[in-house]
Task: structure prediction
Amino acid sequence: MKTIAIVATGGTIAGTGQQGKTVAYRAGEMNVDEIIQSIPMIQNIAHIKEYQLMNIDSNEMNPQRWIVLSNTINEIVKDEHIDGVVVTHGTDTLDETAYFLNLTLHTEKPVVITGAMRPATATSADGPYNLYQAVCLATHNEAWHQGVMGLFSNTIYSGRDIQKVNNYKVDAFDQKAFGCLGYMQDHEVYFFSRTFKIHTIDSMFSKRVLKDLSSVGIAYFYAGASSQLLYDLAKFHHGIVLTGSGSGNYNREWMRAIEDLSSQGIVFVRCSRVAQGIVFDDEIFDPQHCCIPGNTLTPQKARVLLMLALTYSLNHDEIRKIFNEY
Ligand code: SIN
Result:
């Protein structure tokens, strides 16, 4: 049998509340060994090594904790007896952590991130089944060199593209236009596609031990939005991800502020508040080419990439290349 490391960080999968209920619970309360004990069939799939790294609501996740998580997993996978890793995580910021790990883990071994929408004490909690399937996926030979994968409700997602798309239903994740990497039925794994973008062992960000990240903020555009928001963000950040309307658009006041702040060294990435599509260069909204297009990344994922990119380079063309490749 293979050996899988489960690295627990908290979330609803470790949440407890009133017995049977799905609301008014606290995330990150239960230890991972208690959750594993509730899934006896896991013992037939793999030897498990547990690491209770943190036990937090994922809204408390932050760049320093990402670095601790990534560096810990990079140490764990050096052990030749470990065949794969499963990370348990709250669903609220799981998309960001999945992408961060996808960019910073130096391994070809399977790494699967999962969680739950219902606390462990709910009737029909979804966590045990997700965790069971995540362990099965981490033992699968075809799961090698797929990048970090998200596993929810029988579906395998790529760490780059996974998004939380529903804040209420158990089947809460998707990767929109890119479908999914594959499906699972109980322990069976069926891959149908793979991500084309650079990840894990091939990623430049996985090749050195991370100590800190550049600071990047996100500005959300809406009808009548003032450029003061951009100036305020620029006081504290090296980069700003713009969540524009439509194809990453904004008003003329924002355009003038972006040109001004860009000339002062702030790096801008343009994304969209629209859930699907792609953001390209745009001659009308960005005639001075101040912004790097976020292409298909959500604003929060573009922030993750920009934080990493800025720790390596301040060169606009290099960062643009990174956004094309990752
Ligand atoms: C959290 O993200 O930690 C709470 C919500 C969840 O896991 O679904």
About this structure: The chain has a mean pLDDT of 97. Residues 2-202 form a domain with the Rossmann fold fold (CATH 3.40.50.1170). The chain has eight helices and 14 strands. Residues 11-12, 27, 57-59, 90-92, 115, 117 surround succinic acid (CB under 6 Å).
